[in-house]
Design brief:
143 residues; mainly alpha; 434 Repressor (Amino-terminal Domain); Transposase; Homeodomain-like_sf
Length: 143
């Protein structure tokens, strides 16, 4: 799954087809016609409220796709920003999906980044990284 170039309409259409939810139910849920639904399937991005409705209807967290993008591709904030208190909720970046784990292990395997770099840059605990390496070492050699 490509988290670098997100075309959310494609993800929604795929999930829509997987679930088998009727177009009539979908149109009633969104209070629009079939043409509007197909137009959403073509969109590269959608407003948060529309994306939330799709997430509820299709029982899938489409926001997680954007979270994965942030985890994998956003640059590290300078240390001075990490220590500030904020009025917005703070979430930890410890939601490691299969794709994230594979991405990290691939960086090690291809020697694009060292284990130390991954620990520092992605703020993955050393023990977590080594557990992944041990768990997946039967598939590939990462150590």
């Amino acid at each position: 799954m490509n988290f670098k170039q997100i075309k959310i309409g494609n993800f929604i259409q795929s999930r829509f087809l997987e679930t088998g939810i009727s177009m009539e139910r979908t149109c009633n849920f969104f209070k629009c016609n079939e043409k509007d639904i197909h137009a959403m399937f073509q969109q590269e991005d959608l407003s948060a409220d529309v994306l939330l409705k799709w997430s509820k209807l299709l029982e899938y967290d489409f926001f997680r796709i954007y979270s994965q993008h942030l985890i994998m591709y956003s640059p590290q904030a300078p240390e001075k920003y990490n220590k500030r208190t904020s009025s917005v909720p703070q979430f930890r970046k410890n939601v490691y999906t299969k794709e994230i784990i594979e991405f990290i292990l691939e960086l090690i395997e291809t020697e694009k980044k060292s284990k130390k770099q991954i620990i520092d840059e992605y703020q993955i605990p050393k023990t977590t990284l080594y557990k992944w390496i041990n768990k997946f070492s039967d598939r590939k050699q990462y150590a």
